[in-house]
Design a protein that fits this description.
Helices cover 18% and strands 55% of the residues. The protein has 4 helices and 9 strands; from the N terminus they run ααβββαββββββα. The chain is elongated and about 65 Å long. The longest helix is centred in the first third of the chain and has 15 residues. The chain is α+β, with helices and mostly antiparallel strands.
């Protein structure tokens, strides 16, 4: 019961202070060994993410990094079935290779006309998936993911006479605050089930992320290649 109360406390603090990502990770490292038990696993995870926005043409996938923490809760005392959740604190979405559009400044438009635009959308994502652990370290998972919009901006880039030109346009007001979709993946647990998690996950949104969109709906999608590191698992095993 004490461990569960600590878990709820950490989740509350993290969600209440979402903009302070570094602080959340520090809290995770300090309290991680206290959160792990036979029925709860806590750790940090992160890696590469390749995101796209369907319905946004022309555009290309955008490569970035994600970072967060996770909780696995055992369901009904069965160590094969778990509830996998947590918070992806740094969760970039967006697209590369967009066409340049007018900024409202004629002089600036002239300088940027031969450049390109990268759309960068930042969310705090919370997955809620059912995870099934197979023998010999393999696992599969699937469920939902909710996202809370943090930032949205377009980054213009072009070659100029004096070097690279960069211009940032804040577009957060054009995007919905909440994103939601399906998430699932597979993975493998190293060291006989006591080591790092290697994961391949895919997310597909089902909410049109653009407010008042008159054209084709735009949906987020992302492919994650992650490493999950349990915090304090060694101490938990020694205690057992």
């Amino acid at each position: 019961m004490k461990c569960l109360r600590t878990t709820v406390f950490i989740c509350f603090i993290s969600l209440a202070c979402l903009p302070k990502a570094n602080g959340q990770i520090l809290i995770s490292l300090i309290f991680g060994d206290k959160l792990n038990s036979e029925k709860i696993e806590f750790g940090l995870e992160g890696g590469l993410v390749n995101s796209r926005i369907s319905g946004l043409e022309p555009s290309e996938g955008k490569l970035g990094f994600n970072l967060g923490f996770y909780f696995d809760f055992m369901l009904k005392g069965d160590d094969r079935w778990w509830l996998a959740t947590g918070v992806i604190v740094k969760s970039p979405m967006g697209a590369d290779g967009l066409d340049v559009y007018p900024t409202g400044d004629t002089d600036l438009d002239g300088l940027l006309q031969n450049g390109e635009v990268t759309r960068k959308i930042r969310y705090f994502n919370v997955p809620a998936m059912i995870k099934y652990r197979f023998p010999k370290g393999f696992f599969a998972m699937g469920g939902l993911q909710l996202g809370l919009l943090s930032k949205a901006f377009d980054e213009f880039s072009a070659d100029g006479a004096d070097g690279d030109l960069l211009y940032t346009n804040n577009i957060k007001e054009h995007y919905k605050t909440i994103d939601a979709g399906f998430s699932g993946g597979v993975g493998y647990r190293l060291r006989g089930g006591n080591g790092m998690n290697l994961e391949l996950k895919y997310y597909r949104g089902f909410v049109d992320i653009l407010k008042g969109n008159p054209g084709d709906p735009q949906y987020n999608s992302a492919l994650y290649v992650n490493v999950g590191i349990p915090i304090g698992v060694g101490k938990k095993n020694e205690a057992n």
